[in-house]
Write a structure and sequence with these properties.
The protein has 339 residues and is of the alpha/beta class. The chain is 28% helix and 27% strand. It has helices at 2-13, 67-72, 108-119, 121-125, 153-162, 186-191, 195-206, 236-245, 264-274, 285-295; strands at 23-31, 47-50, 53-64, 95-101, 133-139, 143-150, 213-219, 224-226, 229-231, 248-254, 278-280, 298-305, 314-320, 328-330, 334-336. Strands 14-1-12-3-2-13-15 form a 7-stranded antiparallel beta sheet. It is globular and about 50 Å long.
Length: 339
Amino acid sequence: MTALLLFALPLAAQVQEHITVERIIVDARVTDDGGNPITGLKGSDFRVRIDGKPAVVESSEWIPETAAAREMASIDAAIADVNTSLDQPAPRGRLLIFFYQTDFARNSARVAGQMQTVVNANDWLEWLDPEDRVAVFSFDSHLKFRLDFTNNKDHIKDAMQQAMLTNEPPWPRIVPMPALAKRLDPTEMRKAASPEAALIIVANALRPIPGPKSIILFGWGLGRLTPMGVMMEEKYFSARQALESARASVFSIDFTQADSHSLEVGLGKVAGDTGGFYAKTFHFPKIAVDRLQKTLAGHYELEVRKPDTNVRGTHTIEVDVPSQRRATVLARSTYVDRE
């Protein structure tokens, strides 16, 4: 018996407790009443809760995303080389995806609203920096790829106009990295029979590209109206997870020519869930443009230590800035375990 005990002690001594501390990245945009970014915040200024429990913000970095914002932050822009390789990383500028929800039924209030965004195309393009890249998709009966990432505003404007149509567009020409064409399957795009399914495909194509992306959803509604109110489609929850994985925020620009309508609820939800915002263009379209321009000037990248909440799968995230009571904080509302 004594020999057995002596043999067991070294084995017991080898047992160690391993504590895994998981950290997640949260992109947060903080703006004032006028929509202007609030800069100069530190990690201690943010309050983050995961599953209702306080989480430690280990670091906070302000990332200016425009030349003007970098100048204000005293950050010199790097001299850009001509990008001719298909293997170069993402450019310094912002990555925006214009996603048009084209009404296949040709409802007049929806068609007129989409036409308004085309007529006012310059308003949506004139504030872009030369380093910014825009890709264009449309959805009517299925997902359609109209333009790969480019900074050519004439090409972008043309794709915005073509998104009004329900034709099958030719495949966009090859562009240097970052590019989406090789990550998209035309067969799967034709199978995407709902805007939620289309967003899954777009998000999955964006995921390998580093950094945050902004999807500008020019649309008329998500979800379906039931006797109990607007219900999100089953694929919405997969779409939300895919967008989160891609670090893609959705900014819902509701072009419906109406003061209010039922399916605006869905547009607001996808924006709120992913760290974007919802805005109408019916009466004052330039207000939506102005807010988008200001909001996309920069963001905070928060490194957050996740507390042990005993929750597995999908976690809720809440971010606010107690010292800025009137500030608007845009950040994703969920986090999904990777394992």
